[in-house]
Design goal:
mainly alpha, 2 strands, about 5% strand, about 80% helix, two-stranded antiparallel ribbon
Length: about 70
Amino acid sequence: MKPTEYDILLAGERRIIEAIQQLETEYNSHLDAMKAELERVREALTKCSMSVVHVSDTIDGKPNSNK
């Protein structure tokens, strides 16, 4: 039996929906990875800024009197 125009359009629609779902899955995966990387960067920056504060508290091992 020859497929009707409706059958062809329906099959095309299904392929489009599957492609969109695959793209959505890939997008969400990348988004999750970027969120995790952002959290790691935030933690590193927090540690860095804490180290800078500790270093600026002292000059040559002596308390900084300019505070």
